[in-house]
Amino acid sequence: MFAYYFELALRSLKRSRGLTLLMVLAIGFGVAASMTTYSVFRAVSGDPIPWKSSKLFVPQIDMWGPKARDPNGDPPDAMDYTDAMALMRAHRARYQSAMYQISPSVVPANASKHPINVSGHAVFSEFFPMVDVPFKYGAGWTADDDTQRSAVAVISSKLNDKLFGGQNSVGRTLDIEGKDYRVVGVTDHWNPQPRFFDVVNTGGFTDGAEDVFLPFNRAIDVGMPNNGNTNCNEVPKESGFVGLQHSSCVWMAYMVQLDDAAAVQAYREYLDGYARDQQKAGRFGWAPNNRLRDVPAWLDAEHVVPSDTKVSLLVALGLLVVCLVNTAGLLLAKFLRRSSEIGVRRALGAQRSAIYAQFLTEAGIVGLAGGVLGLLLTGVGVASVGWVMPKDIASLARLDVSLLAITLLVAVVATMLAGLYPTFRASRVQPAWQLKSN
Amino acid sequence: MKLHPMIAALRRHKAGVVLIALQIALTLAIVCNAVFIIGQRIERVNRPTGLVEDNLMLVTQSWVGAPSGDQPGDVEKLDSLLQADLAALRAMPDVESVVPINSLPLLNSSWTGSVALKPGSDLRAGNARSVYYFGDEHLLKTLGLKLVAGRGFTAADVRNRGFRDSGTPAVIIVTKALADKLYPKGDALGKAIYLDGGSSPSTIIGEVERLQAPSTGSWVNGFLWNATIEPFRLNANFSRYAIRTKPGRLQAVMHAVPDVLYGVSRMRVLDDDSVKSFAQIRQEAYRSDVGMAILMGVVCLILLGVTAAGIVGLTSFWVGQRHRQIGVRRALGARKIDILHYFQMENLLISGAGALIGLGLAIGLNMLLMKHFEMDRLPVLYVLAGIVAVMALGQGAVFAPARRASNVPPVVATRSA
Amino acid sequence: MLKMTHLSKVYRTEVVETYALRDFNIDVKEGEFVAVTGPSGSGKTTFLTIAGLLETFTGGQYHLDGIEVSQLDDNARSKIRNEKIGFIFQAFNLIPDLNVFDNVEVPLRYRGMKAPERKERIMGALERVGLASRAKHYPAELSGGQQQRVAIARALAGSPRLLLADEPTGNLDTQMARGVMELLEEIHREGATIVMVTHDPELAARAQRNVHIIDGQVVDLAEDPRFHAHVVEARQGQGRS
């Protein structure tokens, strides 16, 4: 029977080409606008590490007190050196790492080439297993390297390509800021977006790369300055990078892995205990006000999804709704224009369900055609999203099979929803109506 | 023309009327807010920074293996590297002036603090928040800032200072906005103020008309025009140089700068992003604003197009349905213009009702956006303009089918249905 | 075949109740050819729409082929219309978007018939009405008489037991009307029950039995030869209804 309805629908749509085209265009544009903005939204609101994001936590300690809290009463969203090191020493989580953003220069072995700037992070050895950094060659350094402040480095495969021609460079040396480092690992392609482990310094989304990781203690030792944000509650009393370390300024990210609810609870208690100790010692003049958020909650609290992305999605969805209301109106006109046909069909024995099937099929075909047009336009939209969105975000939006499937599905389902009322009206056409021709 | 029979007639197409009115209402609500967003973004992008932006460029570079600044003598070593670069750049034939500077308006790198009328207040308290620019005696000239009171820096005012060191300048220049905030009577010149809760005073020796803060983020909105300029060369392992070129020589200088700097020292990093014209900085800073405006514009165009087409479609259907009725009216003496007016009036009624609902929706949507997305209140003017626009759109869309209706010949009345 | 007892149909509005049929009784036997006549507004068409299950009634009983239909739901009524009843409308009511073949096919489709059987029946029906060569034509390309013959073919294709015709020749000229009438008679001879509403006394005279409806009630004058004269007079007095 479906084939019959399909054929009837095609016939009917062909008969009023203008109206059909109008509906298809409306659906196509509406769906494409929604899907294009959705592709961006999806890209920026996704979970960067879905398999363990609920086990990774960002602790916040209130080292500045009530006057510096944000309107929600939250403490600073980054760590100062003193507290970060105290947490590292206590070592209460399964894995933990303090980290800060660095941007050292690397001098190529080939003297004819100019030095280049690379960006990355100074981290502890537990960082690598904690955030599941994939390795192409070698591995992260060991806890011993942390304590011994070894001159070792993990580099990205991109930097490895540039400096070592893509060969396994584990064991080779690298000149960073004029000092030699031994390569212990080369990461495989790894570019999590947003940069969940250091939202504060990257803003979440970044087109910068993680080209180099150095041992935290080593970087501090050689005075490699931080390249991210520094936020101070008071002017540091001492000068230089060492002065920054002794100050209450916050400039570091911190992440811990806690495997179960008990571990989370224990860590909360530890943080509160730590803050109380600081209070007793006179360093904090206020009660503990710590936070411990897992990655999704943290990304939400830091507002990593730009509000423009949300507004765009909202407006585009509004556009889709208008297109659907429009389609509902046109379908209503189109279906009721055929009241006489419906009356005859009913008289000839068509059941209501048959009328429903016939007209919903017609709506579905309009939706499908609109969806196909929408696919093309979404392709154009996603390709040109770089024009209208910041580069770091636009580059994340991509067309994949699931987006294509969603586009078609949304078009068909939405159009059939829009066709529901017109179809209902069509099915109510009385079979007797046409007999009263006088 | 009497409205009562028209409304009675519309009741017979209740669903169609409701749908088209709803569509007009939603269109109005979205278009008002989208156009408002466009207006705000355009206004944002068009606000002057206070700089003369033509022939202005910025170089950002870092030295390889430079001292960290923590050891004695480090800062002086860094300063000599900086001075060497400045000398080389100033010697370039097409360069008019150069200033070492920490940042520029629209650049996403800022240094903020607070200024107070009294010494030793809390860093976060103060009398006003302010952004800081650090540069030498060439700053005003290079950036093209307009001095409205007092004087600029002289070479004697300028000191050098480690990037992470604290230090209070004896003299400062502030923007007029900051001066007026601190001294509403307009007598800021010559007064001493205290920076970042410090205890040593800095005297205001000049006021510039306008200088925008770096960063276009919403967090600077409260002190966007509050800038303090300190006469320091900042010494770090990196440096920035703002360069004003001779008219029309911008591209040539941009092209020549890397070689000039490599000529001073090869041990430095200059990459693709190191040399930028101010136009590029502006473009990058406002990219998302321009993009948002374009996106909203596209959405508006599609919306208006779809709605107009919807009105044409539904009205055409109604005209077709009332074909015979129109013929009868014509036979009974209605003129063409009466039929035309009938459909125009009918549309006016529907879009009027839609606009009324849309007015509420527009304000509702605006409140939603204000609540969640830092939007401002939608001015009534936008809504009124929006109402006029959708009514005009309705009239434009209805014209073709209405004219077709008016062309129905009276003889139709004599034919059977 | 078709039996109505004490049947009534009331149209209600906010202010008045109008009886279209009142204590209406009729019994059409299997294989009969009945002509229904009556002045305009007498309830002829209401009778036919109720007989064809196009409309429900208010009171009384209606047995169609032995089934009491008042309790049937919409789907069951659709099924009976589809399988047992054939309709011939005054305005033909062909679907303009469909060609002759596809129009005849409509009731067969709803019966869920397989394609080969459908085709056989459609071509058979079209041959009966002499339009097999016009299968690919659209209604707009045919004359009124041809269109009505297509409508008859559509009614015949499903082999209905009961054929309901509403002024089948009302929109046709005399010559065409005669052709259609002959076709109906032929169908009747083959065993179908036919109920035809008409105001044409000549046509009515050719039926086996005449039923006259006045004010929603039946005046059965089947065997009364005076009736014809009466109708003719009435018609001359009223003109076309």
Low-confidence stretches of chain B: none
Mean pLDDT of chain B: 89
Specify the number of helices of chain B: 11
- Tally the beta strands of chain A: 12
- Categorize the overall geometry of chain B: elongated
Strand order of the largest sheet of chain B: 3-4-10-7-9-8
Q: Which strand-content bin applies to the residues of chain A?
A: 5-15%
Find the count of extended strands of chain B (DSSP E, 2+ residues).
14
Oligomeric status of the shown chains?
A: heterotrimer
- β content of chain B, as a range? 15-25%
Contiguous helical run count of chain A: 17
Please give a structural write-up:
- The complex is a heterotrimer of chains A (438), B (417) and C (241).
- Chain A has 438 residues and is α+β, with helices and mostly antiparallel strands.
- Chain A folds into two domains: 2-47 and 306-435, no CATH class; 62-257, no CATH class.
- Chain A is 50% helix and 13% strand.
- Chain A has helices spanning 2-15, 17-45, 81-90, 127-130, 143-148, 157-164, 199-202, 216-221, 240-246, 261-280, 295-301, 307-336, 339-347, 352-383, 385-388, 391-394, 401-427; strands at residues 56-60, 95-102, 105-107, 116-117, 120-123, 135-138, 152-156, 173-176, 179-187, 212-215, 253-257, 291-294.
- In chain A, strands 1, 2, 3, 4, 5, 6, 7, 8, 9, 10, 11 and 12 form a twelve-stranded mixed beta sheet that branches.
- In chain A, helix 1 (2-15) packs across helix 14, helix 2 (17-45) runs antiparallel to helix 12 (307-336) and helix 14 packs antiparallel against helix 17 (401-427).
- The two termini of chain A are 34 Å apart.
- Chain B has 417 residues and is an alpha+beta fold.
- Chain B has two domains: 3-45 and 288-414, no CATH class; 65-266, no CATH class.
- Helix content of chain B is 49%, strand content 17%.
- Chain B has eleven helices and 14 strands.
- Chain B has helices spanning 3-11, 14-46, 74-90, 139-143, 176-182, 250-264, 278-285, 287-321, 323-331, 336-373, 380-406, and strands at residues 56-63, 95-100, 112-116, 128-134, 147-150, 159-162, 171-175, 192-195, 202-208, 227-230, 232-235, 238-245, 268-269, 275-277.
- Chain B has a six-stranded mixed β-barrel.
- The longest helix of chain B has 38 residues, at 336-373.
- Chain B is elongated.
- The two termini of chain B are 27 Å apart.
- The relative contact order of chain B is 0.18.
- The mean pLDDT of chain B is 89.
- Chain C has 241 residues and is of the alpha/beta class.
- Chain C has a single domain (29-56, 73-238), classed as P-loop containing nucleotide triphosphate hydrolases (Rossmann fold, 3-Layer(aba) Sandwich).
- Chain C is 38% helix and 25% strand.
- In chain C, the strands form two sheets. In chain C, strands 6-7-8-3-9-10 form a six-stranded mixed beta sheet, with helices on both faces. A four-stranded antiparallel beta sheet of chain C has the order 2-1-4-5, with helices on one face.
- In chain C, a hairpin with a 4-residue loop joins strand 1 and strand 2 (17-28).
- In chain C, helix 3 packs parallel to helix 5 (144-157), helix 4 packs across helix 5 and helix 5 (144-157) packs parallel to helix 6 (174-189).
- Chain C starts with a strand and ends with a helix.
- Mean pLDDT of chain C is 84; it is low at 224-241.
